[in-house]
Write a structure and sequence with these properties.
Elements: E1 2-14, E2 20-26, E3 34-39, E4 48-58, E5 62-73, H1 78-86, H2 95-105, H3 109-115, H4 128-137
């Protein structure tokens, strides 16, 4: 079985009833987006996944990583953190503010949000109302 750690860039298909998903993911060491298929319920754009599975070649769609098991983890890179925050998962933070926040706090961003969220005031354009929205969502 192969291992793959990736960031979800796009959700091509997701069946909410059974969790079957087709995802486009970015992984270190690969120039192109990878196609990931299988039972991966309730993930969103920006999610960081640790996957176990097998590489297969589909006659129509090309190479695909077929998921046997997965675990969602918090992102560890600046790129992953920015995608995670900008995915819409956290109310009050979209792509623009995600970039500003990550530019301010770097790899410490999630730790700042978790333990001292009021420091978001250090980011230009973020005020009390947005911070409260983020607190409720986080």
């Amino acid at each position: 079985m192969d291992m793959l750690r990736c960031v979800v860039e796009r959700i091509t298909f997701q069946n909410e009833e059974n969790g079957y998903s087709v995802l486009k993911c970015r992984a270190k060491g690969y120039k192109e987006l990878l196609t990931v298929v299988g039972l991966v319920p309730a993930v969103s754009v920006g999610s960081v996944l640790s996957l176990q599975g097998l590489w297969k070649h589909d006659g129509t769609y090309g190479p695909q990583f077929t998921v046997q098991s997965f675990e969602e983890t918090l992102p560890a890179t600046i790129y992953g953190i920015e995608k995670y925050l900008g995915s819409g998962l956290i109310k009050g933070i979209g792509p623009v503010f995600a970039k500003k926040i990550v530019n301010t706090f770097g790899t410490e961003t999630l730790q700042v949000i978790e333990s001292d969220i009021d420091r978001l005031r250090e980011v230009r354009g973020i005020g009390t109302i947005r911070i409260e929205r983020v607190k409720r969502s986080w």
